[in-house]
Design brief:
The chain has about 350 residues and is α+β, with helices and mostly antiparallel strands. About 20% of the residues lie in helices and about 30% in strands. The protein has a 15-stranded mixed beta sheet that branches. A four-stranded antiparallel beta sheet has the order 16-15-13-18, with no helix packed on it. The chain is globular, with a radius of gyration of 21 Å. Bound molecules: zinc ion. Zinc ion binds near residues 63, 149 and 152.
Length: about 350
């Protein structure tokens, strides 16, 4: 089959990625619509460059209702100076910017879930065009890629950084070394239940060192998890040699070594529990608590009438509760709990 030649991305950056110094600008994506015939989506971007060296590509709000990454990266973009950098940092605090503005997981323009839209299309929807620009223009410029997620409105997680089991063991080792440097309270060997179309996959297929996170959730950021995000970003940039110093666990300027993170694993699909009932969820275990195989994780109470027994959902393996459904009402098919197995 002849290779397909794709047209160039319609995205125009207003920054020059090869110029030294700090530049704040936009990824301008044309979006013609009723209220703006020649209008554009303006995705904020900052590039901080100081000579040669590795490039880190940092993103938040890939899902628009996840806030730790956006807060940490708007903060980093505002405060990072070129003299502190060896190499280059590209910061996009709100990757799916239309979804971020709407406070929703997916884009209000096309209902696109950016993290299921990769590699994207230059001639597709707005969300597919954002994915395509990252795949063909930004990822090839990067050595290290970090995408900061949280649970959004419907999930809540123990705070962890994560990477995936990969066929290339050298690349896998690089990814897990960066996860360890992030120094979140937990570090995860992550199993994806729906990996097709993910940014993670696009970055990993290009051989990048890729780190993702899940830092809390519930559709808001908490002081604790935002602090973990800010610290983790600095730690990974230090680990990559882009910022001076060693990964540290304390406030800026504190160069103590990172504290040991607890490693979690997701060895199989048994980690996940999905609702088979609609109703009112009764949590029986809180995040971070240990569970044994057979322990009750949650009950789902029918709400149509009184007098009916709840359905019971139990752990299929030993571990800790790593994630849970956040809203109080659930629907059949919702992920209600994730048990991670503890490695240390
Ligand atoms: Zn997410």
């Amino acid at each position: 089959m002849a290779p397909v030649t794709l047209p160039p991305s319609p995205v125009t950056p207003t920054v020059d990625f090869d110029r030294d110094g700090v530049q704040h600008g936009f990824l301008r994506l044309p979006y013609s619509r009723d209220d703006s015939a020649w209008g554009s989506v303006m995705i904020p971007v900052t590039v901080v460059r100081n000579g040669g060296g590795p490039t880190a590509l940092l993103t938040g709000a890939n899902h628009g209702d996840e806030y730790e990454g956006a807060v940490a990266l708007f903060d980093l973009a505002r405060t990072l100076t070129a003299d502190r950098v060896a190499g280059r940092v590209i910061i996009v605090p709100a990757m799916n910017y239309p979804a971020f503005q709407a406070g929703t997981r997916t884009s209000p323009i096309d209902k696109g879930n950016l993290n299921r839209s990769f590699p994207g299309r230059p001639d597709g929807t707005v969300t597919q065009k954002i994915a395509d620009y990252f795949t063909r223009d930004l990822l090839p410029q990067a050595d290290l890629v970090m995408d900061i997620h949280s649970g959004g409105k419907t999930l809540d997680f123990v705070p962890f950084a994560a990477a995936h089991i990969l066929p290339d063991k050298d690349q896998e080792a690089r990814c897990f070394a960066a996860v360890a440097a992030f120094a979140a309270p937990f570090s995860m060997r992550m199993l994806e239940i729906d990996a097709v179309g993910m940014y993670d996959t696009a970055a990993e297929e290009q051989g990048k060192t890729f780190v993702t996170t899940e830092l809390g959730g519930g559709g808001t950021g908490r002081a604790e998890t935002i602090a973990i995000a800010k610290r983790g970003v600095r730690n990974v940039l230090r680990h990559a040699g882009i910022l001076a110093g060693i990964p540290a666990d304390g406030p800026p300027g504190d160069d103590r070594p990172a504290e040991a993170s607890r490693w979690l694993d997701m060895p199989s699909a048994d980690c996940f529990r999905f609702a088979e009932d609609n109703g009112l969820i009764e949590a029986c275990v809180d995040l971070g608590q240990p569970v044994r195989k057979g322990d009750l994780l949650a009950r789902i109470h029918p709400i149509g009438r009184t007098g009916l027994a709840p359905a019971e959902y139990r752990a299929a393996l030993d571990g800790i509760l790593a994630a849970r459904h956040f809203p109080g009402l659930v629907k059949a098919g919702d992920c209600i709990a994730v048990v991670g197995t503890v490695e240390n």
